[in-house]
Amino acid sequence: MARDRLASSRWSLPYRADRSLTLVQSKSIKVCADTQITAIAVSKDQKSVAVAASSGTVTFLALTQGSLKVVQTPITASSSPVNDCIFIGSTSVIATAASDGVVSTWLSTTARPIATWRLLGENLGQVESVNCLCASSDGTFLYSGGQQGSVRAFQSPTTRNQATPIAPSQNHNNAVTALSLSSDDKLLATASKDTSVRVFNARTLEELHVLRGHESLISDCCFSPNDQTLLVSSYDKTCTLWELSSGQRKLDLIGCPTYVEFCSFAPDGTKCITYCRDGALKFFVSDTFCY
C-alpha cells in the first residue's frame, strides 16, 4: 500500500483499485490492464506520476494542465506485486518495493535501473515482503517497512551497489503498513497491524514514542505541516490526532462508516482528509489541528 507522499500530492490525487487514476475535476485514465493499482507516487515538481501494479510493473505518466498521459512502456520492477513506489527527493529517481523482498531504484526518465537489493527476514535466508517506503526530502536516506514488522533505514544508492544501512533495524510485532517522515526529516513514524504507531529518530532509529489506543490495525499516518501532530487512521473506523511533544492522544475524528484506509493533512494544516474502504472521502476542518 502506498503511503508517504507530499501533502499536496496526497491531497489531490486519490487512486482506485479498478485500475483507474483520477485527478480532482478531471477525467479518469486507464493505466494498468487486467491488474490492480497498488501504489502511486507524484514527483516533487508535480509533473510526473509513477503507478505501481500487482503485476510487478510500474507505469510513468506526465501530469500537465490537469491531464495525465502515459509517457513510456511500463517497466517490470519485480516478478511479484510491487507494493509501493516513491520519488526520491526532488530527483527523477524512483524506488520500488515488492513482495519478493526486492527494493530497486530507477531513473524514471529512461526507466533505467540504478540499484537492486533484497531484504531478508529474521530467519536466515528468508525474504521479507517490503510493504512501504519513504525517503528524506533531499533523497539521501531511504526507509522501508516489512511484512514481518521490520523498520529499516538506508543511505540511498546512487550506483548499482546495494543501499547501506545507517542504523540497526527496529521491529513492530506485526506487519508495517505505513511510513511517514516529518518535514524536517528528523522523525520517522511507522504504522503497523499490531495496532500501534511508533515514532523514531530518523537517523538512529532510536524509539521516541509508542502510540497505542486504537482497537484494530493502523492503516496510515501523516505528520502535520508543522510536525507537532501526527494523524493516524485505523480499521477501527477512526482517525486520531496525537500530540508529538507528549505522545498523548489529542483528538478523535469520528464519523467514518467503515475501515479508514488513508489519511492526510491539507498543506495549510487546517483540514484533514480520510479515505474509507467504501470509497467515501471525509473532510475535517479546524484551525487547531496542528497546535
How much strand content do the residues show? over 45%
CATH topology of the largest domain: Methylamine Dehydrogenase, Chain H
The biggest beta sheet is recorded as: 5 strands, antiparallel
Q: In the residues, how many domains can be counted? A: 2
* General shape: globular
Helix content: under 10%
- Helix count, DSSP H or I runs of 4 or more residues: 1
In whole angstroms, how far apart are the ends?
A: 29 Å
The rounded Rg comes to 18 Å
Give the mean pLDDT.
83
How many β-strand stretches?
Answer: 27
Fold blueprint:
Blueprint: H1 7-12, E1 20-21, E2 29-30, E3 37-42, E4 48-53, E5 57-64, E6 67-70, E7 75-76, E8 82-87, E9 93-98, E10 102-107, E11 112-118, E12 130-135, E13 141-146, E14 150-155, E15 164-165, E16 170-171, E17 176-181, E18 187-192, E19 197-201, E20 207-211, E21 218-223, E22 229-234, E23 239-243, E24 248-253, E25 260-265, E26 271-276, E27 281-285
Antiparallel strand pairs: 1-2, 3-4, 4-5, 5-6, 5-7, 8-9, 9-10, 10-11, 12-13, 13-14, 14-15, 14-16, 17-18, 18-19, 19-20, 21-22, 22-23, 23-24, 25-26, 26-27
Structure explained in plain terms:
The structure is a single chain. It is built from one helix and 27 strands. The protein has 291 residues and is mainly beta. The chain has two domains: 1-181, YVTN repeat-like/Quinoprotein amine dehydrogenase (Methylamine Dehydrogenase, Chain H, 7 Propeller); 182-291, Methylamine Dehydrogenase, Chain H. Strands 3, 4, 5, 6 and 7 form a five-stranded antiparallel beta sheet that branches. Strands 12, 13, 14, 15 and 16 form a five-stranded antiparallel beta sheet that branches. The longest helix is centred in the N-terminal third of the chain and has 6 residues, at 7-12. The protein is globular. The two termini are 29 Å apart. Mean pLDDT is 83; it is low at 1-27.
